[in-house]
Amino acid sequence: MLDPITSLLCNFPLAYSLLLSSFTATLTYDTLRFGEFEDFPETSEPVWILGKEYNALTEKDDILSDVTSRLWFTYRKNFPPIGGTGPTSDTGWGCMLRCGQMILGEALMRRHLGRDWRWARGQKQREEYISILNAFIDKKDSYYSIHQIAQMGVGEGKPIGQWYGPNTVAQVLKKLAVFDTWSRLVVHVAMDNTVVIEEISECSSSLYALAGCCRSLCRIGGSGGEETPLWKPLVLLIPLRLGLSDINEAYIETLKQCFMLPQSLGVIGGKPNSAHYFIGFVGEELIYLDPHTTQPAVEPSEDGQVLDEMYHCQHPPCRMHICELDPSIAAGFFCRTEDEFDDWCMRIRRLSCNRGGLPMFELVDSQPSHMVSVDALNLTPDFSDSDRLERFFDSEDEEFEILSL
């Protein structure tokens, strides 16, 4: 029988080979991906990025500037332990959480800076922009940090370090937005593939909550372009299932048209085992930001400034064929004013009349009788009935729930 040292030496080549293989796999996925990016295609087909149309032949710089200006949240390492004793990195489990940060970050940018704001390296940034970044810094007291999302997810039946689906992320963001008194957003999650206008009006307009008056009264003191005290900027998240194991091709045209709406915040979803934030399309390819790059955690300086270059993707955006998309997604829209919401409703109704694709969701004035509210289910705040909660909030299958390397 070999002694331990001799046994170790004899098996060293195998152990070294396994270690090197594991290291190479991680390195290839997480670090060398920067060498895989292709330049943006030379095509006459229109390019759509979050409601804006571009010409790839004449406006390539504008396309890249628009993409770079989106907030890019990735895996981080060496941040304070989540919950005091939890993980200090989200590599391997936080990709959907980071996608949730990106879609909400886009909403905050629209809210405080506007759709046409552009980022440039080294320029002096506006205070609103710095405040937005600080809301996502990886520490426990930031509104939308990985710490807050992970810990709030416990209430949705997801232990810290477990992978999320689009539904869970949407529900968590809805809860966290309540504490953001600076942005005063209302996050509404439309369930059962149905957007109920009455529900949105009730949560976005204090007048509805108090008196239930007609919608026209909500414009007292406003004239279409500005916010009124009776309407809070709306983030509408719609978790959807667009097929069984693969996306149903009947939804593809409708999905593409959603990126063309001026209210579009994009889509969170991905491929099996890999979550992405989709911001547009060109031809039959989706354009997306990929969170699967591990970067060091960032600490703001004493004056509150943030080293922000790592929060903007400065290489050509990733692309994938739309048929590769996993059918479990959540589409997002932002309506700063009630007029913008009315415009969104009008556009969605037009899409529903088109014969080029199957509607992804239904838009109705009031709650259909077959729909059951959360209150009717009598779910307690701590959601102790995790099995029932999982069926209600997370319809995606386990294949998409496990979003790992």
From TrEMBL:
The keyword Ion transport does not apply. InterPro entries: ATG4_LIR, Papain-like_cys_pep_sf, Peptidase_C54, Peptidase_C54_cat. Keywords: Autophagy, Cytoplasm, Cytoplasmic vesicle, Endoplasmic reticulum, Hydrolase, Mitochondrion, Protease, Protein transport, Thiol protease, Transport, Ubl conjugation pathway. Pfam families: ATG4_LIR, Peptidase_C54. GO terms for molecular function: cysteine-type endopeptidase activity; protein-phosphatidylethanolamide deconjugating activity. Residues 61-346 form the Peptidase C54 catalytic domain. One of its GO terms (biological process) is mitophagy. Its main location: cytoplasm. Its EC number is 3.4.22.-. GO terms for cellular component: autophagosome; cytoplasmic vesicle; cytosol; endoplasmic reticulum; mitochondrion. Belongs to the peptidase C54 family. Cysteine protease that plays a key role in autophagy by mediating both proteolytic activation and delipidation of ATG8 family proteins. This is Cysteine protease. It comes from Anabas testudineus. The lineage of its organism: Eukaryota, Metazoa, Chordata, Craniata, Vertebrata.
